[in-house]
Write a structure and sequence with these properties.
The complex is a heterodimer of chains A (about 300) and B (about 350). Chain A is an all-alpha fold. Chain A has one domain: ABC transporter involved in vitamin B12 uptake, BtuC, CATH 1.10.3470. Helices cover about 70% and strands about 0% of the residues of chain A. Chain A is built from twelve helices and two strands. A two-stranded antiparallel ribbon of chain A has the order 1-2. In chain A, helix 1 crosses helix 6, helix 1 packs antiparallel against helix 11 and helix 3 runs antiparallel to helix 9. In chain A, about 55% of the residues are buried. Chain B is globular, with a radius of gyration of 23 Å. Chain B is an alpha/beta fold and about 350 residues long. Chain B has two domains: about 140 residues, Rossmann fold, CATH 3.40.50.2300; about 150 residues, Rossmann fold (3-Layer(aba) Sandwich), CATH 3.40.50. Chain B has eleven helices and twelve strands. In chain B, strand 1, helix 3 and strand 2 form a beta-alpha-beta unit. Classes of the chains: A mainly alpha (about 300), B alpha/beta (about 350). Chains A and B meet through helix 1, helix 11 and helix 12 of A and strand 7, helix 8 and helix 9 of B.
Chain lengths: ~300, ~350
Amino acid sequence: MEEIFSTVVIVGILTSAIRLATPYLFASIGETFSQLSGVLNLGVDGIMLMGAFAAFFVVLNTDNLWLGVLAALIVGLLMGLLMSVISVTLKAEQGISGIGLYMFGLGLSSLLFKVTVGTVKTVEGFQPIKIPVLGDIPIIGEIFFNHNVMVYMAFLLVPLAWWVLEKTTWGLRIKAAGQNPAAADSLGVNVNRVRYMSVCLGAMLAGLAGASLSIALVNLFQENLTAGMGFIAVALVYFGGWKPKGILGGALLFSTVSAFQLWVQVLGVNIPSDVAVMLPYLLTIVALAFTMNRAQQPASLNVPFQRGES
Amino acid sequence: MKNRLVIVFVLIALLAAACSGPAAPAQPAAPAQPAATQSVAAEKFRIAVVMPSAVTDMAFSQSMWSALKAVQTKMGGEAALELKYSEGMFKVPDAAAAIRDYASQGFDIVIAHGSQYGTSVQEIAPDFPDTTFAWGTDVNTFGLPNVYAYTAAAEEGGYVNGVLAALLTKSKKIGVTGPVEVGDAKTYIDGFVQGVAAVDPNINVSKTWTGSFSDVALMTEAAKTHIASGADALTGSSQSVVGSIGAAKDNGSVLWFGTQQDQASLAPNLVVASQQYDWRAMIEEMIKNHLSGKLGGDKFVLQLKNGGLQIIYNPGYSLPADVKKAGDTAIEGIKSGSITVNP
């Protein structure tokens, strides 16, 4: 039982946690852009599946991992455009259209997989790269600096997203479109264009989230590969209070508890497996209840912009 | 307003008529069956199967589908045996609807390939007394004359894999990954643990359950966790094991033991052996029985002894001769009954 506090186990838990947080970071940060501009996109999981399939399919056929990443970005963009047309131009109810997009992505990715690949196959995904010098630091190096390139990308995205949202005019416009679109409009911001761009950016990141599963972490595709991760990613946006660093905290908390429960089982700690499996979800709900700050929610989230109405 | 209501009612009535339409001819079709059985040889035999996961899952569903295809080829192709399937039926109400549909379309045998479909079969089977229903994995036929139940003694192959793993592990640590502690996922692993203990009770077998049949990412991480804790041999059951095999493959030196389906193609250098479910003999017997008028009432258990379970050594892995011999001895022991494995 004291084994659980040994260095091997703690390093193991944290290394796993970093890996497990990767798809959530991509998807949640993407969703943050979309929501800050005023569009609730519940289709993240469907976009992830399409991105995962596209990346997997391209890598399977070309063995070129970066081409796979590109494919995921393009497919994400297309899915984002679809969501934008429905929810921004046609002003459909966002929650419903997002769920529709999810089901579309789930169905289409399964169908394409069945028709083009058929059976379960694995690919050679991105291999871990040890960062020179930093990777040699005992313990820290092992936990943080010995991962594949998509893991690094996900974590670098956090400060990058913060910088875009807080320090650039574009970030200001995004937030204005979501807070007070009428005021933004009167100041010459093209609200719908900003929303299009934010939703598409979010969807491209969701595509990357999918690719991080199919060509970096799991290295295969199967029907419903994401198993609902996209929805947890949406929850993490609320959890993180629409701030990249909040999302980072939420994603790491969730992934650390997931990794912890796996180690608890591996070490044979005597609790029922069902309880262990429940842990991450329980903890997330509890943390959500205590940390949730609704004041930060974009005021016009879920409200289509109509010029002349306010 | 009243006009609208009338229109709505008319529409509902039309819809209802349209829906009951296909069901109505199904009733007369049933009595017509005896005539069909007389000209057995000429008539095409029809089997439909409803499955929870995809037919290409490299595990449970695929084992049934490849068996059906093999039987079809043996019987003379599509002209002699028509096969239809519905896959991805994780939701039981959808599966129940599919089972009923196939039955009303006059399929001779409808297979409900999932233990979660039991209550649906129990409810539907009495409505179609001329159709054979088969479901598994379970042993309960509900006392109905047209229901077969089938199951696999997964613990037998688990035991053999356990013996092999115990002889091959160097770190004396073996990891097991599974979705939920039920059904043949559990019995396989129970057998595996007994097999390991029979060789060396000091080997540490640790188990993780992810709580989900579909969360491949977590299953992969579970396997990586085992590897990080020092395990050098892994096994697991159910559909999402492919993720674990991926993790083993990435590591490059961890051995894998498969079940349900020959999984060697997923990691040709690392898969030592797989327990293959072979449903062919069972399907052939059900067809034979159906044609002679016996529609159900029995249970089938896949065993090593009756050929329903087979241990397939991966030719791509060079298994030491003495280890293979120990595996074969275990197989023979289970067949002859000198080794008993508790499910």
